[in-house]
Amino acid sequence: VINKYKLKNIASSFTGGVGWLSIERKFLEELRKEARKSVNLIKKMCEENNIPCNTAIREGFPHEEIIRYVNQNDDIILVVMGASGKDYVHRKILGGVTEKVVQEVSRKLPCPVVVTPSSDKVPNIRLDF
Description:
The chain has 129 residues and is mostly helical.
């Protein structure tokens, strides 16, 4: 999910708010390129391991887009997200995407959310449904 809120703040910090729209467009295109690279890499890894994988790139507030995407796709049975690596104070001021998604699960998501550690190493996990 390309976070529009952060994008606008980054562009404004470079221009003082004047002319941020053209800077925002450039940042947005770069973010889209990076998102496509990341999504393609994940899809390739899944395909190499015979894991069914659908990908999508969304723009907006991450927690809202994740919830909206899951609600729009009936075939999603599980959401897996990385835990935030932010410190306690930063999380409490800004809130974390994972935290917001987990808070909304009982009200808005039709499937469970699994939160994994934010580390480079994740143990092999097998889920049987």
